[in-house]
Please model this.
Amino acid sequence: MSAVAEVDVVVVGSGFSGIGMAVALKAAGCSFTILEKGDEIGGTWRENRYPGVACDVPSHLYSFSFDLNPYWSHTYSSGDVIQDYLLSVVEKHGLREHVRFDSWMQAAAYDDASGTWQVTSMGSDGSVSVVTARALVLGVGALHMPHIPLIDGLHTFGGELIHTASWPQETSMFGRRVGIIGTGASAVQCIPPLAEDAEHLTVFQRSAPWIMPQNNDEYSDATIDRFRRHPALMRVHREALRRKNDLRAVAFDSHPKLLEIASREASRHLKNQVKDPDLRRKLTPDYTMGCKRVVLSDTYYPALVREDVSVVTEPIVAVMPDGVVTEEGTVHELDALVLATGFDPKGSYAHLQIAGRDGRSFAEEWQSGVESYLGVTMAGFPNLFMLLGPNTGLGHTSVLLMVEAQIAHVMRLLDERDRRGASSVEVRPELVPAFTREMRERSERSVWRQGGCTSWYLDDDGENRTLWPGGVGEYEQRLTRPDAIDFLFT
Model:
């Protein structure tokens, strides 16, 4: 017997993607349920609570276009401020009643006869619940599944071992010998406060990051008041930030030489803040700017020049119960070891036990190199949509712009499905290889492929399956008016 839908849509995840989707569904009068594995709203900014956590996208751009906030105090906001903003959106739109907390999606199976998804979730107490929906939207995010490095003996470390993505709130590093592995965006934010607290901080650096000045200016009370009284001025400010940021796309995507001007500014920033020539050589990147994420900070270099901070560039060969051993045989004795080693961009998806048409395995496709259409739909998975799927991340501006474009795209497809009286909608299979090939060809000339580094942007085969190789405007345009012939309405 065919399944009967209990709700129109099940949304997995209550971070920015899931909440944005929920706002659109509620405005359209759709019934929906949000499954959230945690005990509170949030994704990236609930999970990442390490010291110094912040966003490197301007606050007025890292927010929903339909819920502008005049009260941002600084150009860039800390993680807790962003989390508070997301919670305010939830309360404003009355979404909390739609959320099932402590509900980790265990499995989802598609029923071809009815065009519905049967979604099974489990609570921390082992309780199981099932909900049937006419569509399944995955807003599971990419920046919260920690990447754990493969280092001999890591599990034998006798002190406190912490990944920045799962920082215990009660932990203090005051007066301790602390080591930190990694010098990416999380490390650059985490190192200054750690240096303030630790008896000694040892930074294990594999490759030096490109650091640009942050210039985190404070909005004056008068400016905040103007934005509050005249929202149009706030929209103009947001649009100016958007245009400025999106101009960077051409440098990352196809003309890396344009990054030379910015790299000269970054080099001046390093020279101005680090006077020791030996340390400055350690901190000078040996790859093209933009190959890894460019980081903004005014406090990172000053932290590294402290007498109680050491920068170690010799490779780590092993971890022992009392510390870290580097290639030349030195044992760096530590009381605590922090892994600032980033995230697994496909980890959030690769564990999902989703069975599409004819039992097609979602997890197996992700493990073998997932192929999608515009990062939102996959062949063989009707009525299933991804938010921030493959090739829709950004390295130059706010990813929420992509999220909003995808949400609008999903709503159009659902509306068209219902207008036609169909039970399902999915992308035509022949379009997916062409899109994958386009992403590969466009990425080939990008700085991520040509910049002389390895990064989490690229998969094990060196292919970019993470970032969108273009500007946001182009992506929005391609999603705004999807050609109905590209989709199958059954």
